[in-house]
Design goal:
This protein is of the alpha+beta class and about 240 residues long. Helix content is about 25%, strand content about 40%. Strand 1 and strand 2 form a beta hairpin. Helix 2 packs across helix 3 and helix 4 packs antiparallel against helix 5. The radius of gyration is 22 Å and the shape is globular.
Length: about 240
């Protein structure tokens, strides 16, 4: 007997750029959005019946339409608006919205920052993952591509050696990595900008001050410090390749 298992579908790589034109200059919101729906879509698979399928074109256009009014604050808030919109469809059991935001800063000139010309910032990329069901909303936030280096307070020693090991033991080395992190909030209703800035501040402070015996120890120390400094965060995941 052939049965349909759990399934989902959606629209990825929705490119959305919003220009806010203020009296003192413009502000750019540059997002890449993915929307995934799961629910009662069995008829589309087994009977070719699309009457319950929300078109991916509708997902894209909804993101554009809602951005006009609702993309005014953190991407977590906008993700919640989108997810709750789609979970209101009776056939949708859950909606997951993933957002990556790219930062643009005004180009510096001899006369001051340009009002309508920008350079893409390369420090880090902010992310959010919001899931809505009839039971409620969960919010994850994060960052990607934060490139860090320290030229002191890092070493690596005491590791096992065999005939293939050539790495010398050192107690003072250069350490560089591109860090990514994601964390889950206890609530879907808080000041996400302040929480994000708090995480980044803690992360950078610990990286600077921590005397690292290994990358593993640094990851643990950073994650522990973030959880202690931000009680509204339930869990954090970090990678430092």
């Amino acid at each position: 007997m052939t049965e349909l298992g759990p399934n989902r579908y959606g629209k990825s790589a929705i490119r959305l750029v919003k220009v806010i034109r203020g009296a003192t200059g413009h502000h750019i919101r540059d997002l890449t959005i993915s929307i995934t729906l799961d629910g009662d879509f069995a008829a589309a698979h087994v009977a070719g019946d699309n009457s319950g399928v929300v078109a991916t074109d509708t997902m894209k256009n909804t993101a554009y339409a809602l951005a006009r009014k609702h993309l005014t604050g953190p991407i977590e808030d906008f993700g919640r608006t989108l997810a709750q919109h789609f979970v209101a469809f009776p056939q949708v059991a859950g909606a997951t919205v993933s957002i990556v935001e790219y930062e643009w800063t005004p180009i510096p000139t001899s006369a001051g920052p340009a009002g309508d010309a920008f350079v893409r910032a390369g420090e880090l990329t902010r992310t959010a993952l919001v899931r809505a069901t009839q039971a409620g909303v969960t919010v994850e936030a994060g960052l990607e591509d934060l490139t860090l280096m320290k030229t002191a307070k890092s070493g690596f020693a005491g590791f096992p050696r065999d005939e293939f090991t050539t790495l010398p033991e050192v107690d003072d080395r250069l350490m560089a990595s591109r860090l990514s992190a994601s964390w889950r909030y206890q609530s879907a209703d808080l000041d996400f900008d302040a929480a994000f800035e708090g995480v980044v501040t803690t992360l950078l402070d610990v990286f600077v001050e921590h005397r690292s015996p290994s990358v593993q120890a640094t990851i643990w120390t950073i994650g522990k410090a973030v959880l202690e400094a931000q009680p509204l965060i339930e869990e954090i995941r970090l990678t430092m390749p």
